[in-house]
Prior knowledge:
Distance between the termini: 37 Å
Largest sheet: 11 strands, mixed
Pfam family, one: Cation_ATPase
Function: ATP-driven pump involved in endocytosis-dependent polyamine transport. Uses ATP as an energy source to transfer polyamine precursor putrescine from the endosomal compartment to the cytosol.
Helix content: 25-40%
Strand order of the largest sheet: 20-42-41-40-21-35-39-38-36-37-43
Domain P-type ATPase A: 296-408
Shape: elongated
Structural class: alpha+beta
Strand content: 15-25%
Amino acid sequence: MTILGDAEAQFHFINKGQDDELECHGFKRDKVKTSVTVVFATCTLGLLFLVFYWKPEWFVWAQFKSCKLVDADVVLLQTTDDHRTWSKERVKYETNDSMPLHTSSLEASCEDDKDLHQMQELSETSTDSSPFSYRQDNALIRDTRSNCQPERQNLRYFIHHCLKYVWNAEKQTFEKLRSLGSGMPCSSFYTLRHGLSSTDHANRQSLYGDNVITVEVKPYIKLLFYEVLNPFYIFQLFSVCLWMSDEYYYYAAAIIVMSLTSIAVSLYTIRKQSEMLHQMVESHNTMLVKVCRRGEDVDCQEVISTDLVPGDVLVIPPNGMLMPCDAVLITGNCIVNESMLTGESVPVTKTHLPSQSSEVYSPEKHKSHTLFCGTQVIQTRYYGGEKVKAVVVRTGFSTAKGELVRSILFPKPLNFKLLTAAYRFVLVLVGVAMIGFTFTVAWMALDGESVGEIFLEALDLITICVPPALPSALTIGIIYAQRRLKKQGIFCIIPERINICGLVDLVCFDKTGTLTEDGLDLWAVVPTKNDSFAPAIQDVSLLPLGPFLTAMATCHSLTVIGGNLSGDPLDLKMFKSTKWELEEPGSEESTKFDMLVPTVVRPPNTTVLLHPSPHEREHPYEVGIIRQFTFSSSLQRMSVITRTLGSHHMEVYTKGAPEMIIQLCKPETVPTNFSEILMTYTESGFRVIAFAWRPLEDKVRFLQAQRMSRDQVETDLTFLGLMVMQNALKPETTPTIQQLREANIRTVMVTGDNIRTAVSVARECKMICSGQQVVEVTALPPTDSTPPTVTYTVSTKHMEPVEVKEDKVNADDEMDQFRFAMSGKSFAVIRKYFPHVLPKVAVGGTVFARMSPDQKTQLVEVYQDLGHYVGMCGDGANDCGALKRAHAGISLSELEASVASPFTSRKATIECVSTLIREGRCALVTSFGVFKFMALYSMIQFMSVLILYGVFANLGDTQYLYQDLVIITTIAFVMSRNSAYPKLVRQRPPTSLLRPTVLFSVVVQIAIQLAFQLGAFYLLLAQPWFVPWEDYRLCNDGSMNTTDSNITMNSTLKPCTVDYESESIIKVMKVLTYETATMFGIATFQYVTTAFVFSKGRPFRQPIHTNWLYILDLIILTALNVWLLLYPTQPVAYFVELSQFPDFTFRLYLLAGAAANFVTCWLIEVLLADNNALWKWLTSSYHQHHKKKYQILQEELLYDKDYGLPVGAMHLQGTGKESNCNDGHRGDMCSINVQADNACNPNVDSTYL
């Protein structure tokens, strides 16, 4: 859309390349435009501002003119995604009288020249040019060093989605306010160890604001105001006012009740979610904390947590605290419960940030040193009397918890064709209504009707054609579905997502805790002896005392909480298998070491360490853990530095992924058959952990050990052996995967485990079928001498020969030739250097191993870009991003971290996935049925009323009420009660109301109803006793012969004895006509017919007879219709305003016509509209040219035996002879290697995959 004026030249991108990328357009007020807008708004009685509420961009374009951002009073923001949604924000100004407002990062006091000099040197290495980056902040410090009282400055900013965007004068654009640490070396945090001065703190608070995550719980009256401004409710209000003016009080009251009920349910849901979020953040919004203040009389002072700003030094008490912000540890260690963040209640250890590291700080990369907002510090570990300190880096909505809350408050919209098509369909109905409006105005004007009567009748057609009850009818179906899910232990916080679940055609699963059991069992250990593997030992207690056993007893992050050993389940199993004892600090025993250490471990029986020198005394064998390098998902390992009591040196023990550990070991210590042994265990589904160690030099003392970097410690290690863990599948996993495959729903494993273990589990749960080849995709980044490469290794292990029919090839068939498996590292390389390869790898991929949380989210986005509706199922640990991004995110954890997931299952098995898809399909088909029924209802009534308008007749208020309230409302309330069909089928529900099958059904049913209405009308005209209503209108002028013997009227009609000049009499006589009785009689049956025909049962819903309330309603309505048509009593006929036909045979003809109408509609729907084979044949050409991206790639992969690779680029590695990689019989492995022609060009022209 083009912005008025020269706006295209005035916008800038902000958050470029990020998920929340925006176009920012500048505008300033135009007095002339504003004056014109006020005039128009006055003339429209304020309705123009209602339109502006719906369209904020129109509000800006109508009153402001485009300008440069530097002059803007208002900014117009547009997302760069497919939705292109607009929002407006006002630019605000603040004045600061103290230090420059650019000091959003680190600065030193003028008093501390040493720290300042260090900061100035470090800042030279930064390249970030943001006004809030580390480098420029320090430049400002240098500029103001001679004078600590800078001049008054103004700050221009706006707030969007609870985040502040500030003006960057250098770049002439707005930028998101950065947190402390952006572009900042780790060592620089230690320059703030003394805290901020009061002046610095006041400065920062003016820039960052209060440290608070505010979730407003709006009062019901305010929520009601926003809710009723919905366009549908505005239209309902218009309809109600119109009906009231036409004295149609009963249905108007019914619509008001229905709307208020729908609004009440919506308000209750919104209010409940707001209260839940408010309670979630309120616990840490206001609390007392201790901070260090530079230059104060006391070292620490208590402040309210809302006063915290980035740069404050927080003192963590020994008994822990609930973190009110994100902070980096600079002294001591902390035991933290991060269930809010990860979904796992397992305590984790946080260590202080390396003090000598020049590495740039990153919250993700250094999360083992970062305390996140909302997490609970259980206890602290410290050395001597030193306090445990942490530097505040992020506050408010910038924190990890703030991001979580923002993702709930401002969810990223998803493309859903049902909503788009529904709006288009409504627009079509509006178009039809306008045609009827025009006809009515012209026809009645020619007849000489009054202007008020003309517009009243014409506007009535619009409310008939666009049913005001449509939103309520659709909402009812969602409410029923949500209740059914709740009964099955699945809770939904975004009900609108239920319909989308019915379209899911691909589900990503986490492995550990999702497909497999949470716990791990230690199966065996495989130590090394003389640089080769010894036989596996299943009883760990049989291991001799030595480095391997000590590594198992020390290389963990376990801690004692409340007298119980707590920590990672794997670490717990490992440590308990050694039967050693663990002692926390504080006891007298721990003082045997040089300094206080966090943890001491010892064997169960007192073991004496005898020193060779007779002068040295004996010591019990105890090991103190001097320092921990906690587990990092990016490094895939953890390490500890220990010292054995009485020993003169320290040792390093490391455990982690085998492929990572051997890279840190001396090559000569790694057994030559390492790969074969590892593959043996991983391909059998075991989880394998490797151990290594090395002694440190004697000169390394305690303080030196605390200052050593991780790279210095984890090098030149000696390989010790393997620990083999068994992780069994959950009993429900394989049957559920089989159900999904039979329903043609793809399943993908996204895990952090070893790739071969993941492949083995995928085979075990039938995610990869027997007979399918697994192609392991390995991508390597470029080096100084080699370009980036992609290698495809074909494994034929576990393959069984399967007969495949050549004549029937289906891209969705189970018997695909191969499945891709790849690691997170390869995923990152392909995404960066081979982006054209990634789509096919994703389409053919089944196993994605060693994936980081961000990569899981990226994979979900790749599948969405290919046209899939993606479901994601995980236990909350590291899956939160993917759960939020997927169309249907299902968390198996009820902890706080999973609150952003649309669905949460109380039962921690993947059975909930098939349940959710079944219920989603049921809800989706129900929504289609209800929408089609409401559309047909409006068209049936529209056509019948239009026919009556043609003869200057109309339906009576009671007749409208009977149709709208008794028939339509009751059907709409019970039509959606059908539960989901118990089996998932391959057939998929329609994705849009504009699909050919849906359009055919609606259009043909409308045509049938019109045909039978016209047939009934012309049958009436052919009756010998019929006299048109128009003749009665003219009889008062003497133009009608009332003595005609063929005319027989009932006693209520005495045409030539009434005063036709009376408007009230004319209104009554318009209703008491044979035409009205005929159209009313046939239409009432058509409503019931349409409701029955559009109530689909199998294969997505239970058969219609299971909805006994619905069947009862249809039976009662049919009986009432028959009664009113054949022989209503006189009081009933009078009440319903029915003119009784003099000929009973004609009534039977109408009843027969209604029956024929029912049979015709049902046969057309069953034989044509629901004939999948017919429509597949008819639309084959259309689908051939309108396939989704993933369908095209599936076919290419299915027919391409070389995986899409150019034949000339294929060669076998290490065989020296040609071979066919798809043969599957020559050996276990063969490889295909591809290299990028130009490593510097990620878009290199190539046909790889």
